[in-house]
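for the writeup, i need someone to sanity check this before i put it in the appendix. the sequnce is what the collaborator sent (i think, or maybe the updated version? ugh). structure was predicted straight from it, no edits. if anything looks off just tell me and ill rerun, i have time this weekend
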Amino acid sequence: MCFSVSASAVTTNAFVDSGIAPVYEIAYNPYSDLSISGQTAYCSSVSDSTNAVKITVQQTLQKYSGLLWVWNDVDGAKWSSSVNRNSITVYNSKSGLSSGKYRLKSVFTLTSSNGETETITVYSEEKTV
């Protein structure tokens, strides 16, 4: 029996989740952080790059639904920001949270000087209200 096997690396879409840190072509150390104080969520997203000319990040606060085992977007807790430089730091907050488990989803899209793009989704650690 003879098998033909091939593989290709996909670098335009990557995923980071607790402890797994792949190497990116454009981004350096993308980071998504959530802290909760009382009923307010504080969301931060950071990414650097040596050769990016544009970085966009979309932050989405999500709440866990235990009945369906899914993460739902929190109403009024989606923000987008874009810069024409090689680093981005974004802070947002959402007050009036109800009891439950939350996480921050940060989707970074970086464009390099040669036009190559890289999209990376990073989830924060889960926090409870």
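The two ends are 57 Å apart (CA to CA). The longest strand covers residues 52-65.
thx in advance!!
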